[in-house]
Design brief:
Strand content: under 5%
Order of helices and strands: HHHHHHHHHHHHHHHHHHH
Largest sheet: none
Radius of gyration: 30 Å
Number of helices: 19
Shape: elongated
């Protein structure tokens, strides 16, 4: 009788202990579901103190840390969870995301791969692995992952956009445009995607379409979209609408008065209109801003000065451009500056 009573007491203690553990997690889950992740972490701590092998508590404490961008802490919890149960594909996925946002791309790819091994039909696992590979400039392998992701779910606008990005990097500009088209048709309508499609259309020399895309990009970002105005100026210039191009560069410069490429390109368009003195003023400004394209700026200013019969000054500019490695400037020196 004493043995039975002792057993009942032990069993009662075990049940009480287990209920306490689960009750604590239940309280933590309520905070988690309301987005109170910091509060949830504190309560999950208590559940883990009750049972250091409580896998689900590690999982949700890791999720909570992930959502407050404590990626290092999340990785520690997900790693512990994986030690206790290495078959949870979603934990590998979230640890992979935590590595990715911590800029540890190599380990992120490894975790996404493990998640895929455990659950090969999850399109988002291929998508994230493809994005991670893109960040390593492994574009061919990334494209394969995005292709698989789209086969599993052809309706995701973000996956289509990312595949367009990868195709652009692989210089498949037509393929990129098609993917951007599909992404837009499925609801991704942002300044960014219209800019990207405009870039691809420029590469294909579809300047009219590029202008339309830059205009759409401006609609979605009317305040600070100097790149769209610059791009629209470039495309108009390629269509020999030099006055229109200058107007676009004017706006880009109003947005950013230190936009050296805009001064350079505006100067180039002024040269097309034989406004050589005005062009030199723009090239002077571009050169004064000292960016990485100085060789082009000096070369263009040299051409403007040559048109004004300032041969000595033109040759000085060609010499500077040549010293910076610009081959066309070297040819000009041989041709004009003997």
């Amino acid at each position: 009788m004493k043995f039975v009573l002792f057993f009942l007491i032990l069993n009662s203690v075990f049940i009480c202990h287990s209920q306490t553990k689960y009750r604590i997690k239940w309280d933590a889950d309520k905070k988690y579901s309301k987005g109170d992740y910091k509060g949830a972490i504190i309560v999950y701590n208590s559940a883990i103190e009750k049972d250091s092998l409580y896998t689900n508590a590690y999982n949700f404490r890791g999720f909570s840390k992930f959502f407050i961008k404590d990626y290092k802490g999340a990785i520690i919890d997900f790693t512990k969870s994986i030690e206790l149960n290495p078959k949870k594909h979603d934990i590998y996925y979230f640890r992979g995301l935590s590595y990715y946002y911590s800029l540890n791309i190599k380990d992120a790819i490894e975790d996404f791969s493990k998640a895929i091994d455990l659950k090969p039909k999850r399109y988002n696992y291929y998508y994230l692995r493809g994005v991670a590979k893109k960040n390593q400039m492994d574009y061919v392998s990334a494209l394969k992952d995005l292709d698989t992701s789209i086969i599993l779910n052809p309706l995701d606008k973000e996956v289509l956009f990312e595949r367009g990005e990868i195709k652009f990097s692989l210089k498949d500009y037509l393929g990129a445009v098609k993917d951007y088209d599909s992404s837009i048709s499925k609801g991704k309508k942002t300044s960014e995607i219209y800019l990207k499609r405009a870039f691809a259309n420029e590469k294909l020399k579809n300047y009219e379409n590029a202008i339309l895309d830059y205009s759409e990009a401006i609609k979605f970002n009317t305040v600070n979209n100097k790149i769209a105005y610059f791009g629209r100026g470039f495309s108009k210039g390629m269509l020999e609408d030099h006055i229109g191009a200058i107007s676009e560069y004017n706006i880009a410069i109003e947005i950013d008065s230190n936009y050296s490429d805009a001064y350079n390109n505006r100067g180039f368009e002024k040269m097309e209109l034989k406004m050589f003195q005005e062009a030199i003023i723009d090239f002077d400004k571009a050169i004064s801003l000292q960016n990485s394209n100085l060789n082009y700026y000096y070369f263009n200013r040299g051409n403007a000065k040559f048109e004004l019969n300032l041969l000595e000054e033109a040759c000085q500019d060609f010499t500077k451009a040549s010293e910076m490695g610009y081959e066309l400037a070297k040819e000009k020196l041989i041709e004009l500056c003997k």
